[in-house]
Design a protein that fits this description.
- This protein has one domain.
- It has helices at residues 18-27, 35-40, and strands at 5-13, 45-55, 59-69.
- A hairpin with a 3-residue loop joins β2 and β3.
- The longest helix is centred in the first third of the chain and has 10 residues, at 18-27.
- It is built from two helices and three strands; from the N terminus they run βααββ.
- Strands 1-3-2 form a three-stranded antiparallel beta sheet.
- It is of the alpha+beta class and 82 residues long.
Length: 82
């Protein structure tokens, strides 16, 4: 990955409806640092990809992957070169 760009991801297990998945990640109940919520609402993300499928232990799994550039939002600090 080029310096100055970064990626992030959120993973949800056991929830099947897209709306419920997004609400659960945005509310982030039970996660002390609210990392999923912080990640979803970063202003730096410019692109997002998602996938959904079965999981052997949790039945269902959804993944959201984000990409953004340094300085495009208020929080993102980018990836350290090297």
């Amino acid at each position: 990955m080029k310096p100055g760009f970064g990626v992030g991801e959120n993973i949800s297990y056991g929830t099947t409806k897209p709306r419920d998945i997004l609400i659960a990640l945005a509310v982030d109940d039970g996660v002390p640092n609210r990392g999923h919520r912080v990640n979803i609402f970063k202003e730096d993300w410019q692109e997002m990809g998602s996938c959904y499928g079965t999981h052997s232990g949790y039945r269902d799994m959804a993944v959201a992957i984000y990409r953004g550039a340094v300085g495009s939002g208020s929080e993102y600090k980018g990836v350290e070169p090297g």
